[in-house]
Amino acid sequence: MSTRxxxxxxxxxxxxxxxxxxxxxxxxxxxxxxxxRPHFKVEGVYLTILKGIPAPAQNADPERFPxxxxxxxxxxxxxxxxxxxxxTLPWGVENDVNGRWVMFHDPAGNLIELVQFGG
Length: 119
What we know:
By secondary structure, the chain is of the alpha/beta class. It has a single domain (7-54, 65-117), classed as 2,3-Dihydroxybiphenyl 1,2-Dioxygenase, domain 1 (Roll), CATH 3.10.180. It is built from two helices and seven strands. It has helices at 15-25, 75-84, and strands at residues 7-12, 39-42, 45-51, 68-71, 93-96, 99-105, 111-117. Strand 6 and strand 7 form a beta hairpin. The chain is globular. The protein starts with 6 loop residues before the first strand and ends with a strand. The mean pLDDT is 91.
């Protein structure tokens, strides 16, 4: 029996602005709307945006850890895209022996990470 994620939900006060971010900035395909809940299909998993106020974890350890991370083939290209849309990259591109990553906040304040594995 295998188990895998089917749907990831995030919250945003301005659902439309957040949906435009994921469509226009990150390049996700916006699927036909399910009423006021935009859906994107990302490698077989659905990302949906719900109306609500995101609440960061209190006294989190570590303090900065993304809501979710997305693996990308070309991090440099995604960073150029983020910069084109003037997305703030508070820590810049980071790396270790396993790969490189960049973290940023979507318009609702959710901390998101893009990671490219391998040197």
